[in-house]
Amino acid sequence: MAFVITSPCKGELAGECLAVCPVECIDKGEDQFFIDPDLCIDCGACASVCPVDAIVEEYDLTPEQEPYLEKAEKFFENR
């Protein structure tokens, strides 16, 4: 299980999540941050500091938010 960054992050890019991630699994994309679902240890540190409440546990995603997990998987696919 992993955390997923959703739509409130688009264009926001506050970045507090980067500073607290103990495994450095968050990278900046073109218009938002992404969490690598293969590296995330599900600690929740990023979610607790996100100023726009954009970070959600994978299993709590709504159907409208599920594309953000797919977007993150594609972002890290070739890294």
TrEMBL record:
Cross-referenced InterPro entries: 4Fe4S_Fe-S-bd, 4Fe4S_Fe_S_CS, 7Fe_ferredoxin, RnfB_subfamily
Pfam families listed in its UniProt record: Fer4
Cofactor: [4Fe-4S] cluster; [3Fe-4S] cluster
Ranges where the 4Fe-4S ferredoxin-type domain occurs: 31-60
GO molecular function, one term: metal ion binding
Keywords associated with the record: 4Fe-4S, Electron transport, Iron, Iron-sulfur, Metal-binding, Transport
Biological function: Ferredoxins are iron-sulfur proteins that transfer electrons in a wide variety of metabolic reactions.
Name under which the protein is recorded: Ferredoxin
Source species: Salirhabdus euzebyi
